[in-house]
Predict the structure of Magnesium and cobalt transport protein CorA.
Amino acid sequence: MLWVGLQGPTPEEVVALGEELGLDRLGITEMTRTHQRSKLDHFGDLLFLVLQPAEYADRTESVHCHEVDVVVGDHLVFAVSAHPAVDLERMRALLEQYPDIVTRGPYAVLWAVCEYVTRGYRDVMDGIENDIDEIEEELFGDEEDVSHRIFALQREVIDLHHATAPLAEIIERLGRVVAKKQGVSSVAPFAEVADRARYIDGRVAAFRSTLDSALTIHATLVEQRRNEQMREMTRVSLEQNDQVKKVSSWAAIGFAPTLIAGVYGMNFRFMPEIDQPWGYPFALALMVGVSVALYVVFKKRDWL
């Protein structure tokens, strides 16, 4: 068995080595592409597998999904990783824990690669779960940026879901291929990794659901706070209106006697009632009567 691993090669290096190994031209072209999602293809007798190992940066709360391309034949394992975060040497080190794996050929090595990738998701999900717990605590506080944090983490979880959603089906297909080559009904190690992939996918889907619920709850809380502010503003406005009504009513009551006094205070020679003995009492009575009438009107209208 030949196992070749390239870390961060140029497309020209991949093409040159692929031609040297006699790989299918279409398969070589696929290996030079970047930003592919997890998938499994056949090129002649060779399997072409794309996996997306992930790492989680807790400081920025971001998920980084990288890519590793693996071509597997009956006597060949050809792995290409464009990013240094995908450590092919660590994949080799994983095989040392299972010394009998290498003797079982390239498909056993392929299982080890799947095992390495799915194990790596464990730390990523633990980091995301910890951040979701922090968001739930902030949700009912007065943190203004919690919505931005939810949106950002939700975007990272969606990217992770793109990487993990096809894994279970891919590994099940690999298990069927290997079982067929070995002439058995099933291969337990691949079935175990497929079960882990389903668990990972279910957990990531739960993260998306939790974050969707968090956004809904946050929107509801924001709306409740806004309604409370509107109710408080309405209450203050009503109180101010009541005060304005009272001030206006007393101003009108006070203005009527002032107006009458002003009229009768004009020193013209010829004025009605100026020479009448009842003129002064009449003016006082008129002031009182108008003021009382205004008071009654405003009281009935609940302005006073």
About this structure: The radius of gyration is 41 Å.
